Amino acid sequence: xxxxxxxxxxxxxxxxxxxxxRVSDPAKEAxxxxxxxxxxxLAKAAAELSVHAGRKTIKAEDVKFAAxxx
Amino acid sequence: xxxxxxxxxxxxxxxxxxxxxRVSDPAKEAxxxxxxxxxxxLAKAAAELSVHAGRKTIKAEDVKFAAxxx
Lengths: 70, 70
Fold this sequence. Notes:
homodimer
């Protein structure tokens, strides 16, 4: 995967799982991998939806439609 | 949602959907919302799994187990 998402953000998200939890560095990397995979899946669907609607630009409605129909 | 993920990263991910696509700002925000929601869901499961394993630290195996069982 592309290492697009920052690990500091992964830590913030993982700490939202419980008020009293610590987070290992490999756990942050595993979350990054998971979220990038989910994001790219959604991006492909959103891009197809925008083309389907006769556009060359992904709009919020494409992302929301793709998310709803997952 | 917490606005944890940077919008520039959302743009990079959305552009992976297709080689020839543009991306609106609200689309980036919609992807951020989707991924933060997915991430927090996973973080809750991973935190429970770490406690279940007698730990106070989320490890990569917790994140991977949670992702596999989604």
